[in-house]
Amino acid sequence: MHKTRLITLVIFFFFSLNLLAQKSQQELIIDSLESYRPIAEPGWDELDLCIGLFRLYLFNGNVKKADEQLARIYEIGRTEEIPIAAAYGRIMENLRAYIVESDDDKAIRLCLEAIEIAKREKSKEALAYARYQLAENYYFEKGEPEKAIELILESLEDVDETVTIKTLGNTHKTIGHVYGQIGEYEKGLKHLGIALEYFKQLTENPPVHPKIGRRSALDLGAEMHTANTLNYIGDLHVMQGDIAGALEVKLEALGLMEKLNNKDMTAWMYSQTGKLYAEIGNLNQAVSDFQKSRLLFEELGFDKDIHRVNETMIPTLVRMNEYELAEQLTEDNIRYYTKTKDTLYLASTYVHASGIFLMLKEHVDLKKSKRYLDAASQLVSRISDPKIESLFARMQGMYEKRSGDLNKAHQFLNDALHISSESNKLFNARVTFDIADNYLLRGQYDSARRYAQKALGMAHDLKDRDLSMDSYKLLSDIGVASGDMQEAYDNHVTYFNLYDSLFTTSATAKLKEEQVRQGIFSYQRDKELAEENARLLESRNNLFLIVGAFLLIIIGLMVYLYFSLRKVKGKIQTQNEQLTQLNQTKDKFFGIIAHDLRSPLIGLQGVGDQVDYFLKKGNTDRLEQLSRGISDTTKKLNELLDNLLNWALLQNGMIPYNPQKVDMKATVESVIDLLTPLADVKGVLLKNSIKAKAFVYADEKAVHTILRNLISNALKFTESNGAIEVDIQDLEDHASILINDTGTGISAEMIPKIFDLEKESKQGTMGEKGTGLGLVLCKELVELNHGSIHVESKEGEGSTFSFNLPKAA
């Protein structure tokens, strides 16, 4: 049944994919999951479906539909007695609070409640899920990286095999990102690499969820997590000064987002690539990507994100001398954050705006910078955020330096360094550089040299090439100012080498252009000839490429035909095997009808004449004997017909499956009561050793049928004065029911075939006959109830049949 549901889910997914190519991947997955909903089973199967749909609807902007799924999650938890559903409900509510309501405090509270429920219910998966969600809230919204790392490390120490690949990947992704943001680049890249491996496994070999027998709805769309992880890796390249590497990785992530047609993440990635294009000086492309980001966010109605893009675009506009537009966007942000009462981001906007008009080498506007600083001052004093406070102090220091008050500048810059947390390594390195530069302007060369060398060491640790270049340049300037020309020369050479390694390609191109323009280059004719040869070579290579592509297409078609034929051949072979098995099943079925069912019916044909004869003779002893024979025959017929009916229903997938909480002690007792008369005739003791409060989660009728067949089978092969005992073992996530007998046992050759339909049925210790159908039926019923069946036996010493079923919650 689980295989059927899984196949149906896959078919609906790919059918939707082919017909609705214009939809996003999220919309396609939603369609496939909604198509699966009518056949989802109550309990975990439906719970997983609703959790998956909630996330997809929420991320797709359909809050109403998401809320419907959320209500159903809580309802399933109550009606199906799944307490951990309350934890998943709160994790989902946390996402809603963050994305829809922008209520960070509520999101954190919901995560903490989910953690408490997960601990109480001993669910490692829900606990890990809630912890990394809480860590993301603390880092992204509260700016507390240390708290986020503490939560993730605690989670990683507490995981076990029940924690899903996706949750492990997200956990490593989150801590990798946070480590990178605080300057722990090697740790960050290590965890992000682990996350990529998990997401690759999730994409290429998705696991089957043990509780539902199919791929979890939460695991669909693993490419999105891959793209997010690539984005974070790109961030680390940026921090290490590798802008080209960062741009390459982020463009790969952007390509994945566009392929998935995920508009919100595509918009976010465009803002990221815009920043990188600005870093390498391609300002027009940067603004183009920023505008694409803004348009997508406007289409989605994400006002908060529109203004985040404004923040990243404003410095680029200033560099392009678009001061009026930069100021318009700044004022737009100020109005928005004032309206939404977002004090933290309003203060951040004022501080950054003051810096824009201070950091420029030209067009410095001290009045505008001062106006923004004064506005920020009123807000910074009301919020307790070390990151904003330290940035504000730095901007005050830079303002005083630009204004000429170097003593005040020194005081503010030292305050910035004192307020900033140790984890904010990149910021601290930049402030250390600012202090060194201020000492140089004050003529305190020894202090300037000491702080510049300290900033250089921090830049090396952070692998920040830009800061390294600035520090070497500053040390060179200090050497010149202090009269140490050797120091100035050595540092300038190192600075120039770093600069040259970054810009060699563009510098060489510009040099060649200048040489041609001035007429210095004396080999112009040779150059033109070389270019003509290059064009001819390119044309020939293009021809080769066309021919090669054509050959590759032919080879590809041949390979495709080959594998298609192999696939068809394999399918035909599989169908032949299935037909052979169906023929065997048919032969067995008719054999049972022809012999095992027909023989007792023939025996009953003359019973009426015999009763009439013995009544006339007054032979009551023979009548009693005949009555017992009729009773035994009808019981066997009833048992045989019951097995035949169940087996036929199983073969057609029509047998009812209604799992519920089953009391094993009571169920075994009812089966023993049914079979006690037969056991008394054979002189065999039937014993129920199951203690009270032993429950499984299964179909009660199926469990009764399994027990009846297994105990009947044990009774058949147990001699007089023997015993049959039924017991239960409580394992971690399931219960094992044991049927032990002191019977004749089973040969080693027979054990592998004991549950096969083709095996030959043996007679019991008193000549009892069987069909061989009972054990086959047991196996299929156990598997229908998500369990497994096993047998251990030694010939002459008895047998132990055991079957496992899920424990009831």
Q: Please, could you describe this protein's structure?
A:
With 809 residues, the protein is mainly α. It has 30 helices and 7 strands. It has a 5-stranded mixed beta sheet with strand order 2-4-5-7-6. Helix 8 packs antiparallel against helix 9 (165-181) and helix 16 (323-339) runs antiparallel to helix 17 (343-359).
Q: How does the major sheet shape up?
A: 5 strands, mixed
- Please estimate the helix content: over 70%
Label the overall shape: elongated
Q: What strand order characterises the main sheet?
A: 2-4-5-7-6
Tell me briefly what this model is.
This protein has 809 residues and is mostly helical. The protein is built from 30 helices and seven strands. Helix 16 (323-339) runs antiparallel to helix 17 (343-359) and helix 27 crosses helix 30 (773-784).
